[in-house]
Amino acid sequence: MENRLDYSRVKAVIEGRDVQLSRLERKTLTRYASAQGWSPNRLAHTLQIGVEWARDLLRVEARAIENRDNHNLASDPNPVETARQAALAGQQPPPSGQAHDGDGPERDRSIPRKDRRGKTVARKARPVARHVQTQALINNLREAV
Hints:
Blueprint: H1 7-14, H2 23-36, H3 40-47, H4 51-71, E1 73-75, H5 79-88, E2 99-101, E3 113-114, E4 120-121, H6 134-143
Antiparallel strand pairs: 1-2, 3-4
């Protein structure tokens, strides 16, 4: 029961029903609340916890979403087609080799980063854990009955 993740139960809590949530469902609700911009007071009331604890939960989730956006890098799988489509649309095509995150605005991440000692550190694309994918979570909550 502790590892149960039922989106319909999470949606019921969002709608105001008093439902006992599992640990994963509470985390899912917190992720949703952070993505939707809930106040700590609203989350505290919904989860029946203290405002300070709700504020800390929202801060952790906001940081996780930011880290996902900063580290979920994807290079363009077909740069020739992307350039052709941009030219047809009358836009400037992105520079070749430019890495961008898949679900946010395009930012130049091809510039190497340096660590504390001044050594160049290449960024590696890392897969994102399933519980971090906010948009899929929001869509599932919308579809839940």
